[in-house]
UniProtKB/TrEMBL annotation:
<dbReference type="InterPro" id="IPR016181">
    <property type="entry name" value="Acyl_CoA_acyltransferase"/>
</dbReference>
<protein>
    <recommendedName>
        <fullName>N-acetyltransferase domain-containing protein</fullName>
    </recommendedName>
</protein>
<feature type="domain" description="N-acetyltransferase">
    <location>
        <begin position="18"/>
        <end position="154"/>
    </location>
</feature>
<dbReference type="Pfam" id="PF13673">
    <property type="entry name" value="Acetyltransf_10"/>
</dbReference>
<dbReference type="InterPro" id="IPR000182">
    <property type="entry name" value="GNAT_dom"/>
</dbReference>
<dbReference type="InterPro" id="IPR052564">
    <property type="entry name" value="N-acetyltrans/Recomb-assoc"/>
</dbReference>
Length: 154
């Protein structure tokens, strides 16, 4: 079941511990210490609560038996900020469904025609499968490695 997560629900949802756990397992090994710290600071619960309260970010969780197993955070302008799914639930379409809900919601709020993301090199193949294309080569900013990508929405 997919449902929105607002600032008041963030802690109880356990979304940020999921994000940190999945990041630590799949992405952190390829990051510098600076990049790991930068990511950890970005997903700090208090900082995320502020972003959700201000409307800077929208967030949804995918819940199985009341437990969050997937999380997406998106800027209303159509930029994916976070998309993480628990290892035990990979390859079940959860990330795709989360992305569909987030994109659909953001499209209703604005007249945009594309979705952007800056995935780690680990996730580029996944985003290609969803129709995203690279707009530039791999970059590093504050230790965070990413490849800018976009997808034109129908």
């Amino acid at each position: 079941m997919i449902r929105p997560i607002d600032a008041d629900q963030l802690r109880d949802s356990k979304a940020m511990p999921l994000v940190l756990r999945v990041f630590g397992e799949f992405e952190a090994p390829e990051y510098s210490d600076e990049g790991v710290r930068e990511f950890q600071e970005y997903v700090d619960e208090r900082a995320m609560e502020q972003r959700l309260r201000s409307g800077e970010l929208l967030m949804w969780g995918y819940f199985v038996d009341g437990r969050v197993v997937g999380v997406i955070a998106m800027r209303p302008i159509g930029h994916v900020s976070l998309l993480f799914v628990d290892k035990e639930h990979h390859r079940r379409g959860i990330a795709r469904r989360l992305l569909d809900v987030a994109v659909s919601t953001c499209m209703k709020r604005s007249a945009r025609i594309e979705t952007t993301v800056n995935p780690s090199p680990y996730a580029v193949g996944f985003y290609r499968k969803l129709g995203f294309v690279e707009t530039d080569g791999e970059q590093t900013l504050n230790g965070i490695r990413f490849v800018p990508m976009k997808r034109t929405e129908p």
